[in-house]
UniProtKB/TrEMBL annotation:
Entry keyword set: Hydrolase
Taxonomic source organism: Mesorhizobium metallidurans STM 2683
GO BP annotation list: carbohydrate metabolic process; pentose-phosphate shunt
Lineage, uppermost ranks: Bacteria, Pseudomonadati, Pseudomonadota, Alphaproteobacteria, Hyphomicrobiales
Gene symbol of the encoding locus: pgl
EC number: 3.1.1.31
Domain called Glucosamine/galactosamine-6-phosphate isomerase: residue spans: 13-227
EC class name: hydrolase
Name of the protein this chain belongs to: 6-phosphogluconolactonase
Its job: Hydrolysis of 6-phosphogluconolactone to 6-phosphogluconate.
Biological or metabolic pathway of the protein: Carbohydrate degradation; pentose phosphate pathway; D-ribulose 5-phosphate from D-glucose 6-phosphate (oxidative stage): step 2/3
């Protein structure tokens, strides 16, 4: 489809307020329509302000399940943990009442962890109502890294997997990621990027040239991806 809607803001706090408002609205609508809301968020360094803003919005958080778009294969106590980032910034204030389903747990290896995640996450109230993606300047999103050894499988829209393992030299650690199909089925797909480097990287990914994972997601998305950007 290759459709996206570009929402530019003067600064991070204004972006955070707008994105949090959209996400809270979508979750409230989902709760009204089906009694529950399912949200998947990305980690990294960008989302902390957005998480803090969203955490203060008084919706029926006790009807919301939060999970991760992807996770590094590290315990929640690690500074690299996305679960740790979500616990410290999103599952606070009003949002502390939400149920959180992590991706990392002790396992012999990433493949074992991904397989048991697949079983554990079956019971979530799919499809996602909201997914918030991030993006690296290399054009990765979720843990769909350009150098992932199973990128074709990660980007297979027909995959029935929920969680897949990722080995990619550029990723730092082995990763666990939601499969593309789960992301694309979300009612609202947001991409949250900040800084000139990421705007340049995004524009580059939308142009001709080597196809980056973020482009594969936007092209495969059944509805426009809502891009939220601030300098
Ligand atoms: O685990 C992660 O790192 C994220 O889920 C990943 O997809 C992130 O969104 C991008 O890497 C951007 O990260 P920054 O926000 O740190 O630039």
């Amino acid at each position: 489809m290759n459709a996206y809607t570009w929402h530019a803001f003067a600064d991070g706090p204004q972006l955070a307020a707008a994105l949090a408002g959209h996400v809270a609205g979508r979750l409230t609508k989902a709760i009204a329509e089906r009694g529950t809301g399912l949200l998947a968020v990305s980690g990294g360094t960008t989302p902390a302000k957005f998480f803090a803003t969203l955490s203060k919005i008084p919706i029926a958080w006790d009807r919301v399940t939060v999970t991760l778009v992807d996770e590094r294969f590290v315990p929640a106590s690690s500074p690299r943990s996305n679960a740790g980032l979500v616990a410290a910034n999103l599952l606070q204030n009003a949002a502390a009442a939400a149920r959180f389903v992590p991706l990392y747990h002790e396992a012999a290896g990433i493949e074992t962890a991904a397989a048991s995640d697949d079983a554990a996450l079956q019971s979530l109230p799919w499809p996602l109502d909201v997914v918030v993606l991030g993006m690296g300047t290399d054009g990765h999103t979720a843990s769909f890294f350009p150098d992932a050894d199973n990128l074709a499988k990660l980007l297979d829209p027909s995959s029935t997997r929920i969680v897949l393992p990722v080995h990619a030299a550029s990723a730092g650690e082995p990763r666990l990621t939601l499969a593309l199909a789960r992301i694309l089925a979300a009612g609202f797909i947001a991409l949250h990027i900040e800084g000139e480097d990421k705007r340049t990287a995004f524009d580059g990914a939308m142009g001709p040239g080597a196809r980056k994972p973020i482009r594969a997601v936007i092209d495969a998305a059944p509805k426009a991806v809502e891009v939220f950007w601030a300098p």
